[in-house]
Amino acid sequence: MSSQIYNCDSCDKIYSSYMGLWKHKKSIHKKIEVINDEQEQKDEMKKHICKYCTKEFGDRTARWRHEKKYCKLNSPEITVKILIVIIQIVIILSIAIIQLLIAV
Question: For the segment 38-95, what is each residue's pLDDT rounded down to a tens digit?
């Protein structure tokens, strides 16, 4: 009988048989590889981002079409709404600064 030991190079677990190591790698590390591969594929697919609404697209043609024809943030009505929200934020921050100055 051989007293050889088998180490997992991913997590340093030790097994007395090659079959034990093989089962460990298949059941533990194969799942991790699949999850990582799926995430990498999703990340690669979504590289093209709309400059108006930051929506992500799988290719630049889809992004271009969206920006030119469908992106609602490109419309003047939305631009006015965004400006109103920015003005409201500035007013709220100004009030907060004034309150802090009064408190000092």
Answer: 666 666 555 788 877 878 888 888 888 888 888 866 666 677 888 899 999 999 999 9
Site of tokens 């090659």: 18
| pTM, full prediction | 0.31
Task: Indicate the SS3 state at residue 67.
Answer: helix
Q: Tell me if 53 sits within 8 A of 72, measured CB to CB.
A: yes
Residues whose CB is less than 8 angstroms from the CB of residue 50 and which lie 6 or more positions away in sequence, other chains included? 56, 57, 63, 66, 67, 71, 73
> In angstroms, what CA-CA distances link 44 with 40, 47, 51, 67?
6, 6, 18, 20
Q: How far apart are CA 70 and CA 65, in angstroms?
A: 7
Q: Quote the tokens at residue 33.
A: 């590889």
